[in-house]
Prior knowledge:
Helix 7 links the parallel strand 6 and strand 7. This protein has 9 helices and 17 strands. It is elongated and about 65 Å long. The relative contact order is 0.13. The longest helix has 15 residues, at 3-17. By secondary structure, the chain is α/β, with parallel strands linked by helices. The strands form 5 sheets. The chain has a 7-stranded parallel β-sheet with strand order 7-6-5-10-13-16-17, with helices on both faces. The protein has a 3-stranded antiparallel β-sheet with strand order 1-3-2.
Amino acid sequence: MLTEERRTLIVEIVNEKKAVSVNELVEMLDTSAATIRRDINELNRSGLLVKVFGGATAVSSLDVNTKEDAVGQKATKHIVEKDTISKYAAKIIQDNDFVYIDAGTTTLTMIDYIDNKKAKYITNGVVHAKKLMDRGLETIMIGGRLKASTEAVVGPDCVEFIRKYHFTKAFMGTNGISIRAGFTTPDVDEAMIKTEAIRHSYMAYVLADHSKFDQVNSVTFADINSCSIITDKMVAREYINHTVVKVVEE
């Protein structure tokens, strides 16, 4: 069977079944696992299917989230996991770091564990800024339009503000993580802020519990390889082929 013919069949099978393993394709097409993996890699690059750990899924099977929960709703989810991730992340901060802290419930929890008063902190989270100051930490609050649902400052003024700075570390929140789509959020304005903060950071860390993996939202703010991930559980080992993943266990 010619390569193009085989790859066409793979796409047809994946679209019909929505998800298929490498082993299934080996049996169906009577070829080697190595060949199937090469085909999947190439079809993934071409956008004809989505490569996942152990196989592939159809592009159409990806559910794209377009709505975002309010801060109060988010704060009640995965509390233990967020606490574990936050403790570890806070320890990464070193003396004289200039730290960007993104708005979000996990990054907010992280502030409870920050005790380095020799570092400086900047944030677009209103509650984050207040908590940083309450802990006696040197804090800069970004100016711009306030988004009520996430209690974050957004908009073009906020982007221009960030462009003036260069951070040693950035701690980011995300709504979704996908190998194909990268780090995503439902909000265009927040995506712009996140993208700019990551661009202006020497090191960027995404703090995300396991429920964020294999989730896609409407706007990509960073490619999968542009940030390290700090999480509580490895959902699929495939992610470690694309970026640094630190799994923190209680």
